[in-house]
Amino acid sequence: MRIIAAASLVAFGVLASASARADILPVPPFKGNDTGGIIAYSLANQVDARQIAVDHCAQYGKVAKFLAVQPYDGGYISFACRWVPYGAAEQPLRTLY
């Protein structure tokens, strides 16, 4: 019984120390996948955030829908990639300019 208690204390110590170092990892200004993504608000002040989201979702044959904006330093703009609505004749275009 003492071995199990000692092992659980060691495991708890490892988990507690690992969560304390979570803020060291860098966060990219843009991150996304086939379901959506986030754009850093500081990046959105420098470039067109709508175009970034549209180009990203077009890679998967989807359209972008913006969900939320946190308008302060450290905030994010979130968007979802949705399937093209029924009745659309073509897939979304990816603009290159």
Detailed description of the structure:
This protein has helices spanning 2-20, 41-44, 49-58, and strands at residues 30-33, 36-40, 62-69, 76-83. It has 97 residues and is α+β, with helices and mostly antiparallel strands. The protein has a domain at 28-83. It has a four-stranded antiparallel beta sheet. Strand 1 and strand 2 (36-40) form a beta hairpin. The model has no long low-confidence stretch (mean pLDDT 77).
The total beta strand count reads: 4
Shape: extended
- How would you write the strand order of the largest sheet? 1-2-4-3
The secondary-structure class comes to alpha+beta
Chain-averaged pLDDT: 77
Report how far apart the termini are: 68 Å
**Main pleated-sheet profile:** 4 strands, antiparallel
Question: Could you spell the SSE succession in H and E letters?
Answer: HEEHHEE
Strand residue percentage:
25-35%
- Tally of separate helices: 3
Low-confidence stretches: none
* Relative helix content: 25-40%
Q: Say what oligomer this is.
A: single chain
CA gyration radius, whole angstroms: 21 Å
Short description:
With 97 residues, the protein is of the alpha+beta class. 34% of the residues lie in helices and 26% in strands.
Index terms:
four-stranded antiparallel beta sheet; 97 residues; single chain; 26% strand
Per-chain topology:
Layout: H1 2-20, E1 30-33, E2 36-40, H2 41-44, H3 49-58, E3 62-69, E4 76-83
